[in-house]
Amino acid sequence: MKVKEHLKIIRRKDIYYVLADNGKPRKFKPWLGDIFAFTYDSIMRKSIFPKKFRGSILKHFDILKMAYRDFHNLNILEIATGSGFSAELISRDNFYTGIDISAGLLRQAVRKFKDQGFTKAEFYVSSADDLPFNDHFFDIVICDLSLNFLGDLEKFINEIKRVMKTGSYFYCSVPVPEKKDPGIVIHGNLYSEIELKTVFSKYNYIFSSGSDENGALLYFRAQLN
What percent of the chain shows pLDDT beyond 70? Predict the structure, then answer.
């Protein structure tokens, strides 16, 4: 069973919501705001990648497709699904679960995954540091371009460790301070590659940096030992 038994979950328009003690769906404050969710893809393509990251979104997708090419029939969790870019990057035979604090973005993700022919995809409004899933369930956890927005890094790592199987992998792309243009402001908490390696190692992960270069982004994976 994927979801914790004690939680009360409701489903609305293909999106699952965890209920709070008052019987209403838990609420979160998306950084962009649900009202602007429809502009997310345009912002990423026209502003974030060329102006903030000084990188290529097309190269980004190519790098991720290569990293995910051997994912088949696996339980995959994506942290901060956003508008659902991963629908074009992973195989449809996987069991995909996406979480985000923005229901507006998840509605876009639902459409993209359906358009790509996914029949085994579920979407939850949830924070990354308090996941509604049972221990040791997922084979792969993905976090694309969102780690810097997740607040308490160690709390997050400890939480994904809880839901990951031993030997499973965490795949991540994230801007790092040593790769970014000094004159550019990238929001969130930026951690260096050394800092990321140190904290993941603390939680018993084997950290491996990728060799791909794409502006301010670091690509890495960490195996739960």
Answer: 96
**pTM for the model:** 0.95
How far, in Å, CA of 204 to CA of 198, rounded? 10
* CB contact set of 180 (below 8 Å; sequence gap of 6+): 53, 54, 186, 190, 215, 216
Q: Please write the tens of the pLDDT for every residue from 38-65.
A: 788 898 999 999 999 999 999 999 999 9
Distance (Å, rounded) from C-alpha 145 to C-alpha 32?
14
Q: For residue 46, give both structure tokens.
A: 């026209």
Beta bridge partners of 223: 169, 206
Question: Would you state the pLDDT for residue 36?
Answer: 61
Structure tokens at 1: 């069973």
Q: Is 23 left (phi over 0), alpha (psi -120 to 50) or beta?
A: left
- String of b and e for 12-26 (b: at least 16 CB within 10 Å)? eeebbbbeeeeeebb
Separation CA 102–CA 28 (nearest Å)? 7
* Structural domains of the chain sorted by starting position, each given as residue range(s) with its CATH number in brackets: 9-224 (3.40.50.150)
CA atoms within 13 A on the CB side of 101: 14
Residue reference for tokens 């965490």:
170
One-letter amino acid of 17:
Y
Residue 40 near residue 107 (C-beta atoms within 8 A): no
For residue 87, the Cα-to-chain-centroid distance in whole angstroms is: 13
Amino acid at 188: G
